[in-house]
Amino acid sequence: MSTDRRVALVTGGAQGIGRGIAEGLALDGFHVVVADRSPAPAEATVAAIRQDGGAASALEVDVTDSALVTAALDRVANDVGPVHVLVNNAGWDDHKRFVETDEAFWDQIIDLNFKAALRFVRHLLPGMIDRKAGRIVNIGSDAGRVGSSMEAVYSGARGGVIAFTKTIAREAARAGVTANVVCPGPTRTPAMDAVLAQQGDAEAVMAAMVKAVPMRRLGEPSDIAAAVRFFASDAAGFVTGQTLSVSGGLTMA
What we know:
Layout: E1 7-11, H1 16-27, E2 31-36, H2 39-51, E3 55-60, H3 66-79, E4 85-88, H4 103-131, E5 134-139, H5 143-146, H6 152-172, E6 177-184, H7 190-197, H8 202-212, H9 221-232, E7 243-246
Parallel strand pairs: 1-2, 1-4, 2-3, 4-5, 5-6, 6-7
């Protein structure tokens, strides 16, 4: 095991935005750990990265289980090395009016979209502080910045991610560790395609989404990856506690 290689870990890294981030960080020379609960897509992403000359490995993990997260991260430390860049990307939502939700749904959304980030930061931040180097990039959502109809609990969880990241940025700043948030706007991913496929008129829904974006297109995973790559880079060493929306101008507040 090399002791000087730079390691980046991306949760939910097998598909969509996570895959775009993993591929982008690999281009920047990181050994990327593709952490995902679905091993086959994770291995496919690893294979694609390696085919392009990058370094990557897959890590099967359920981000909602603290014991499994601890065991998985211990394997990364032993097999790959210390994590320099942590990207908490895993997330999910189901569009419902708040009055139609129950506490079991709240727990599911908060556990995946908020507490998962806490688990990974809690495990990896002490090592970053000891080494006086590290980058934490949490993927939020514009829903957490400005709210979003049919996403009340998700919006609250993502808002929590933003506030949590700012506090970590303050607590870790003296150690040279940065923490920032990237908030994607509407982004073209397999998950979005699946949601659109369930609509009565998917083409009309897509057209309405595109029309709402001032740049008249949806985001691509590579657009989100570009922001993450900046925050993970040496050039962003004096940037911390910031929230960057990547939405084509959809939200500007």
